[in-house]
Amino acid sequence: MRGRYIAFEGIDGAGKSTVAEAVAEELRSDGLVVETVREPGGTPVGEAIRDILLHSHDHLEPWAEALLFAASRAQLAAQTIAPLLEDGSWVLSDRSVYSSLAYQGAGRELGVDVVRSVNAAGLGGVWPDLVVLLELDPTAGLARQQDPDRIGGEGLGLQERVASGYRRLVETDQAVVAVDASRGVARVVRDSVEIIRERFGESV
User: Fold this and answer.
1) Between the CA of residue 49 and those of 33, 112, 120, what are the distances in Å?
2) Could you tell me the pTM of the whole model?
């Protein structure tokens, strides 16, 4: 049986990595084989691209940024995610293609549909079965960051456009389900696990 691919999304500071790891532990306690990955990164190629995207001091043009994210993602999908799913493992990802839809499509104003098409070409059908969107006010997200990366350090305007982009995805894409990330981590994890169990039923 093919595994499931679940992505955790949200603005910077929403708590994606913390929640994804905690949810993975919960699902493992159900007897599932669960692996976690992160974007950008997750492969040697992806980690090199991650360093450019998040830590470079050079200016990146919006489309250069979008294409670097897409390249890292294509490598991760082919090298790691697809084989895990074929083996029946569940993959929980800290970010996914939906980050590019929100950040580059909406935040950079490149267009959600064109960014979707560019990424789809490299993913070969490896697309999240479920997206758990950790919703948080952008001001609160920025306040949570102790050492922001290049994108997280760009300020409130970008994060507000990204948050609006995510909200539109909730309204238009049935794969995306929102969770209130302003509450404590334990509550956010519990809500996320409930959504996963409701979505996949007896598979969990």
Assistant:
1) 28, 22, 19
2) 0.96
